[in-house]
Design brief:
It contains 13 helices and nine strands. With 337 residues, it is of the alpha/beta class. The protein has two domains: 177 residues, Nucleotidyltransferase, domain 5 (2-Layer Sandwich); 121 residues, Rossmann fold. The strands form two sheets. Strands 3-2-1-4-5 form a five-stranded mixed β-sheet, sandwiched between helices. It has a four-stranded parallel β-sheet with strand order 7-6-8-9, with helices on both faces. β1 and β2 form a beta hairpin. It is elongated.
């Protein structure tokens, strides 16, 4: 069950213990349930560099609660739960602040969302796994370097990674801690920039489900036609092309949710943008020539598509710890009011 608490902190200066803002986002069964953020008086000076990053100054936190008073309450919320942060900076900062103020550190299962992302998307395995870059990838808009917003974004990255890989949350945690850098989902990566001279340049497309042709082949073909190919569905995507077993994919669920919200994303089949001849030729070009060739299962599947299926796209529609958490949140709100 995808239930966890995401946390983020901002600091006044280069000392990780100089926490000036704490953000928390509670995710229950894969959905954001509650988020919370509060300024903290770090009782130390601010550096111009850090102010330039998050915009928080000494004046903003002068009358705020101090860490030693607020964190014991937050710790009681975190204790025993899976806590997610983007990189281990936030955990280290909180540990150092707890040591400084002689406060017990909560006993929780700490998970690095950046490592989940690095295992889920092969192209960010070594670089590009920053929170802003990942949120741009998944189409999640937020105010960066606000602790509450960063915590929410951290959770969104985890949810998107699970949808992209079809991993369970437990599987994602295991993968994030694996020393094996080989990405088992490399074959699912399809992102490409569209040909600016292509007929469909300016449109964005995503593929999901089991396609009769390798995804890399259809992605290249789509890019030749001008489509920009993305790996994940967002508000900026125009088309989702589905293959077999698409119903339970995160991409399809996300596209249907966007349709219900009024976004004009179109869901359709492979044969509604490519002809059978185009796909067969593309597959043959990508493989070694054979002396003789008989019809492949892919060809037979393509030939079974009726002419009416190819005329246009069709939109489709998809049709106690919680109590404890909210009690603590209420206590926090009252205490900090």
């Amino acid at each position: 069950m995808t239930t966890f608490i995401a946390i983020d902190v901002e600091t006044a200066n280069s000392d990780p213990s100089s926490i000036c803002q704490i953000g928390i986002a509670i995710y229950m069964e894969g959905k954001l349930s509650k988020s919370y953020g509060h300024l903290v008086n770090p009782q130390v000076g601010y550096s111009a560099k850090n102010i330039g990053i998050h915009g928080i100054s000494e004046e903003d936190t002068h009358n705020s609660i101090i860490f030693s008073e607020v964190f014991p309450i937050i710790a009681s919320l975190l204790d025993g739960f899976t806590v997610v942060s983007h990189t281990m900076f936030d955990r280290n900062a909180l540990q150092k602040a707890c040591t400084l103020h002689d406060i017990p550190f909560p006993k929780c299962n700490w998970v690095d969302s950046s490592m989940i992302a690095r295992r889920a998307w092969v192209d960010v395995a070594k670089r590009g796994f920053g929170l802003e870059n990942l949120c741009s990838r998944i189409g999640f808009d937020y105010d960066a370097h606000d602790a509450e917003q960063d915590a929410i974004a951290c959770g969104q990255v985890v949810i998107a990674a699970l949808e992209h890989t079809n991993w369970s949350f437990d599987r994602a945690i295991t993968e994030s801690r694996s020393r094996n850098s080989n990405n088992k989902w490399e074959g699912k990566q399809a992102a490409q920039i569209g040909n600016e001279h292509g007929e469909h340049y300016g449109k964005t497309i995503v593929f999901t489900g089991d396609l009769p042709v390798k995804r890399s082949i259809v992605a290249s073909l789509a890019a030749q036609k001008g489509y920009t190919v993305k790996d994940n569905v967002s508000k900026k995507v125009d088309y989702l092309i589905i293959g077999r077993n698409y119903e339970n994919t995160g991409k399809h669920k996300r596209a249907c949710a966007l349709q219900e919200q009024g976004h004009s994303i179109i869901i359709g089949a492979l044969m509604q943008i490519f002809t059978a001849e185009e796909l067969i030729d593309a597959e043959e070009t990508a493989t070694i020539s054979k002396p003789t060739r008989k019809k492949s299962p892919m060809e037979m599947e393509l030939e079974s598509v009726t002419e009416s299926d190819m005329k246009k796209f069709h939109k489709t529609n998809a049709s106690g710890c919680v109590v404890g958490i909210f009690i603590i949140i209420i206590i926090i709100g009252v205490f900090l009011t």
